[in-house]
């Protein structure tokens, strides 16, 4: 089996990453009752013996779990978040050699993250990546987690993306990017996002765009339902949305939101980690969902989000889960795939679901969705037999759909508003290596991406006709 | 004579396992009398080797190949668990990460990398055979390993064993729902195999699925169910059988005889199979069959291109022979009548010599340039096969593959017209012209079969 490395950059990246590691440990603990280090566990964790050395200890082969270390690199240009992490319950899964921190942060400035810190920390980051890679016998994928709005995650994060591509060209680069909401308190977030977007478009294999506003809405809705008693005895602890409700631990404001993102990552990788009658390896995701190199933005939606999961769900509710995955309030991004064009779609199912359930639901949903003419049957599916903790089953849908263009267009409008006034521009241009052209190139890159989506979207609703076949001289 | 089976990718390994299972249990189910004993020996020699060191458990003449380890691990252990037969301990080659549904990755990257190792395993297996009839590969068209690496390995087999026969058994993907790039992978595989293979035997997953639900009454159909049906049909083709009139002399060269009767022209290499009867064990216990009834149904299945004994269209009729060719190609005929290049009818079971096969010996079933006498072959064995007292399998080189083939080529071509997903392939070294070459080859095949 293959291994993956999580690279978490900036405040958001590290806070989401932290929720991921917590949930991943719980998931494996609930599946792996014997405490044996197996290949599934090995995909994200090393098993090491810490008794004899405090440095970079040796990997143990299969056998009893001694001490699990996350295959992760933690980067932040301030210390607060990472330090907090090191004092929390997860401190043992990281060791100091996996961390790269500075003290002053990037001040919400992409240029500081990318140009200054990138230059300054290049070697140290490379060394960390290489070390993490050496611990893998078959490294398949990097998962980069960051936000688009700040300076470190967006700037240094996308710098790291470039390093990965140069240094490990064969290793897939999946990026989870948290996009700022329109009311984001970071004023320069449109600059940062668009400068980062260019890097994502050019250097990532797949991007899972997530909007903070969607996460907020989902969490609010859950709270509402909980308070109004709609969910009966409230949400069971340890299910999809609940945080880590330990006696001492107070939930931080972002935790509920970040749990959702963490679950997305768990479900995305479950089929590669666990058994199933229809496995989907990570390399199959981009192969099947990315028809053109730059059109690799996949809108995720996740179910269940609002249901209790203590009963054996009957067929009707199983089918409801599939419908939900195509409804707006289960999407992690505000967009309208149903009114736009699907280029491809993946359904990743966990739990006791059969191939016939998948087929039935695809047939049922198909008429409500529009697929691009050359991919009328653009479905990729996987079945993983291990359900998520606390649930009987779950579904992650990844839509490669032209609807992302409206989000990108909004972002572009916000950017243009600032840029026209040259607001805050000098903070960027002061940074060594940062030029005006970085802005113009970034906006050109985004415009042509939007144009690509528009071009495809324009074929929507046209009669589907076959391309003229090659003629053969008989 | 023996055959060596090369199982490639998830599908190929899962199907291959079921094939050995059927062959083994069929052989074991034969009576203790001398003729049963001879059948058993012939079957054993064909598919298994026996080594003293192996504790006398027959070892499949097989090489297992996959680019990930999960499936091979499961396949080896499930065979070993039967206690009746096993795979050789070292007869497998696997890597850590699959080909990611990418034909080019399987062909251009994994192919050259594993060539030595795989061909080494093959050579060791070949050396265990007293006489080698040839190779059977089992693989799917849709994934990356079976299709891409399978194509590459077939080329290596052709180069290394120019005088041996190669039968590629390929699984045609479900129409929709599993692999988005399956049509590309299928076109690339089929076009390349058309150069290096002696014959391609095709099973369509959708068809087998229907057999499972409608004939076998299985409610929730798993891949194991599907594979059992496929293996049953394969077994009925490949188990010992008499190609001549004498019912005591088994064919010496199973693959050679198959190709000689069915693939008479290099333009026509696509073979499909249909078996009758097929039913659940419980129904089987309450059913009796006559050769007359079986032959009547099988003939109609053949000419109406119905791959199972259910929903047969009895309206389809051949135009009487003797009519001028122009009259034969009526629109009606083009729509529904399945014209053959050649057919092989394999009959197994009680009183097999009484089966009347004249209905298949009708020029109206065949394209004008193959005379019916040479287009039809009938092989027989008086042993019951796989618990069926009487059973028949038709291997047909006919237009029956045309519809699925045309649909795959059409969908792949639509995609290619937009160049969608092509970059995923070119990054592993395949050029757009290679795609075009493959399309040209497949259009040629479509045209050839259309014009029968
Ligand atoms: N979902 C989520 N969003 C977060 C979290 N922390 C910050 N954000 C969002 O991320 C953006 C700010 O980026 P940060 O990640 O805080 O910034 P940074 O990468 O640390 O960069 P600097 O602080 O400028 O060095 C804003 O849009 C915040 O709303 C988090 O834990 N979860
Ligand atoms: N009949 C049958 N079809 C199968 C089976 N397993 C997979 N398939 C079909 O095979 C195709 C997928 O190809 P796989 O064989 O899984 O792929 P692979 O050769 O392992 O290649 P990669 O996984 O891409 O490296 C789909 O069309 C499936 O329907 C099986 O056991 N039986
Ligand atoms: Mg920060
Ligand atoms: Mg596979």
What does the model show?
The complex is a heterodimer of chains A (474) and B (452). By secondary structure, chain A is an alpha/beta fold. Chain A folds into 2 domains: 3-48 and 58-245 and 254-405, Rossmann fold; 406-459, Helix Hairpins (Orthogonal Bundle), CATH 1.10.287. Chain A is built from 14 helices and 14 strands. Chain A has helices at residues 10-31, 39-42, 80-87, 110-134, 152-167, 189-203, 212-227, 255-273, 282-289, 315-325, 355-365, 404-420, 425-429, 436-457, and strands at residues 3-9, 36-37, 45-48, 63-64, 67-70, 72-76, 99-101, 139-147, 172-179, 206-211, 299-303, 342-351, 379-384, 393-401. A 6-stranded parallel beta sheet of chain A has the order 7-6-1-8-9-10, with helices on both faces. In chain A, α7 crosses α8 (255-273) and α12 runs antiparallel to α14. Chain A is globular. Mean pLDDT of chain A is 89; it is low at 232-250 and 308-313. Chain B is an alpha/beta fold and 452 residues long. Chain B folds into 2 domains: 2-273, Rossmann fold; 276-319 and 326-394, Tubulin/FtsZ, C-terminal domain (60s Ribosomal Protein L30, Chain: A, 2-Layer Sandwich). Chain B has a 10-stranded mixed beta sheet with strand order 5-4-1-6-7-8-9-12-10-11, with helices on both faces. In chain B, strands 2-3 form a two-stranded antiparallel sheet. In chain B, α15 packs antiparallel against α17. The radius of gyration of chain B is 21 Å and the shape is globular. Chain B starts with a strand and ends with a helix. Residues 326-334 of chain B have low confidence and may be disordered. The A-B interface holds A 1-2, 137-138, 140, 275, 277-279, 281, 283-284, 286-293, 343-344, 354-356, 358-359, 362, 373-381, 466-467, 469-472, 474 and B 10, 68-70, 96-98, 100-102, 144, 175-181, 220-223, 409-411, 413-421, 423-424, 436, 439-440, 443-444, 447, 451. The structure holds guanosine-5'-triphosphate (2 copies) and magnesium ion (MG) (2 copies). One guanosine-5'-triphosphate binds at residues 10-12, 15-16, 76-77, 105-108, 147, 149-153, 178, 180, 184, 186, 189, 212, 215, 254, 257-258 of chain A. The site of one magnesium ion has 6 residues of chain A, from α1.
């Amino acid at each position: 089996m293959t291994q993956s490395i999580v690279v978490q950059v900036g405040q958001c990246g590290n806070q989401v990453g932290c929720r991921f590691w917590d949930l991943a440990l719980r998931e494996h603990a609930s599946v792996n009752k014997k405490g044996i280090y197996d290949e599934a566990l090995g995909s994200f964790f090393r098993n090491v013996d810490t008794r004899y050395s405090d440095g970079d200890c040796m990997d143990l082969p299969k056998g009893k779990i001694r001490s699990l270390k996350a295959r992760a690199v933690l980067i932040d240009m301030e210390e607060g978040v990472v330090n907090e992490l090191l004092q929390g319950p997860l401190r043992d899964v990281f060791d100091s050699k996996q961390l790269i921190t500075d003290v002053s942060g990037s001040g919400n400035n992409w240029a500081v993250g990318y140009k200054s810190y990138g230059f300054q920390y290049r070697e140290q980051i490379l060394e960390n990546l290489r070390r993490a890679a050496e611990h893998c016998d078959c490294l398949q994928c990097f998962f980069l987690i960051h936000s688009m709005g700040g300076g470190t995650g967006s700037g240094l994060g996308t710098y790291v993306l470039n390093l990965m591509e140069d240094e490990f060209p064969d290793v897939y680069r999946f990026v989870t990017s948290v996009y700022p909401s329109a009311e984001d308190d970071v004023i320069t977030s449109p600059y940062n996002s668009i400068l980062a977007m260019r890097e994502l478009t050019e250097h990532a294999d797949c991007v899972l765009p997530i909007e903070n506003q969607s996460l907020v809405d989902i969490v609010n809705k859950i709270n509402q339902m909980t308070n109004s008693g709609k969910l009966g005895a409230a949400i069971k602890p340890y299910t999809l949305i609940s945080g880590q409700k330990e006696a001492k631990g107070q939930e931080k404001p972002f935790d509920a939101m970040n749990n959702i993102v963490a679950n997305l990552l768990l479900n995305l990788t479950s089929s590669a980690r666990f058994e199933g009658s229809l496995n989907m390896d990570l390399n199959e995701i981009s192969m099947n969902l990315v028809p053109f190199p730059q059109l690799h933005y996949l809108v995720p939606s996740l179910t269940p989000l609002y249901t209790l999961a203590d009963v054996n769900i009957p067929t009707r509710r199983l089918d409801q889960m599939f419908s939900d995955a195509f409804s707006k309030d289960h999407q992690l991004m505000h967009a309208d795939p149903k009114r736009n064009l699907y280029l491809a779609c993946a359904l990743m199912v966990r739990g006791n679901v059969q191939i016939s359930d998948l087929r039935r639901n695809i047939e049922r949903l198909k008429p409500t969705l529009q697929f691009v003419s050359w991919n009328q049957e653009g479905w990729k599916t996987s079945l993983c037999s291990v359900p998520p903790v606390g649930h009987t089953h779950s579904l992650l849908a990844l839509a490669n759909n032209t609807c992302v263009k409206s989000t990108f267009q909004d972002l572009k409008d916000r950017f243009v508003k600032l840029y026209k006034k040259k607001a805050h521009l000098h903070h960027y241009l002061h940074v060594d290596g940062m030029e005006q052209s970085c802005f113009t190139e970034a906006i050109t890159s985004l415009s042509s991406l939007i144009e690509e989506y528009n071009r495809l979207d324009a074929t929507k609703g046209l009669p589907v006709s076959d391309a003229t076949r090659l003629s053969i001289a008989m | 004579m023996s055959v060596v089976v090369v199982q490639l990718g998830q599908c190929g390994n899962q199907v291959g396992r079921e094939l050995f299972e059927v062959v083994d249990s069929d052989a074991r189910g034969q009576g203790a009398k001398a003729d049963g004993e001879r059948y058993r020996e012939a079957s054993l020699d064909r598919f298994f080797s026996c080594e003293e060191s192996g504790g006398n458990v027959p070892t499949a003449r097989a090489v297992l190949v996959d680019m990930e380890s999960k499936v091979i691990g499961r396949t080896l252990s499930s065979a070993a668990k039967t206690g009746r037969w096993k795979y050789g301990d070292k007869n497998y080659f696997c890597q850590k990460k699959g080909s990611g549904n990418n034909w080019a990755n399987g062909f251009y990257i994994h192919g050259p990398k594993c060539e030595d190792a795989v061909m080494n395993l093959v050579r060791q297996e070949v050396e265990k055979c007293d006489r080698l009839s040839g190779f059977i590969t089992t693989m799917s068209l849709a994934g990356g390993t079976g299709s891409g690496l399978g194509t590459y390995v077939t080329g290596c087999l052709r180069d290394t064993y120019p005088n041996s026969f190669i039968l590629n058994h390929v699984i045609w993907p479900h129409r929709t729902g599993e692999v988005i790039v399956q049509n590309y992978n299928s076109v690339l595989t089929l076009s390349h195999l058309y150069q290096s293979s002696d014959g391609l035997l095709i099973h369509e997953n959708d068809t087998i699925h229907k057999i499972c639900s409608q004939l076998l009454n299985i409610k929730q159909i798993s891949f194991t169910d599907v594979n059992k049906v496929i293996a049953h049909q394969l077994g009925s083709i490949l188990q010992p059988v008499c190609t001549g009139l004498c019912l005591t002399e088994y064919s010496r060269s199973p693959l050679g005889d198959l190709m000689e009767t069915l693939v008479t022209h290099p333009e026509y290499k696509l073979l499909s199979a249909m078996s009758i009867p097929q039913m659940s064990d419980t129904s089987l216990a309450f059913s009796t069959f006559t050769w007359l009834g079986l032959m009547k149904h099988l003939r109609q299945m053949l000419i109406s291109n119905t791959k199972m004994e259910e929903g047969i269209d009895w309206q389809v009729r051949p135009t009487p022979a003797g009519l001028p060719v122009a009259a034969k190609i009526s629109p009606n005929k083009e729509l529904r009548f399945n014209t053959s290049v050649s057919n092989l009818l394999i009959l197994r079971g009680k009183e097999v010599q009484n089966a009347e096969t004249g209905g298949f010996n009708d020029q109206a079933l065949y394209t004008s340039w193959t005379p019916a006498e040479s287009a039809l072959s009938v092989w027989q064995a008086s042993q019951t096969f796989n618990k069926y007292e009487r059973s028949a399998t038709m291997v047909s080189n006919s237009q029956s593959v045309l519809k699925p083939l045309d649909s795959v080529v059409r969908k792949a071509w639509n995609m290619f017209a937009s160049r969608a997903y092509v970059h995923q392939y070119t990054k592993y070294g395949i050029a757009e012209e290679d795609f075009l070459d493959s399309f040209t080859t497949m259009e040629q095949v479509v045209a050839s079969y259309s014009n029968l």
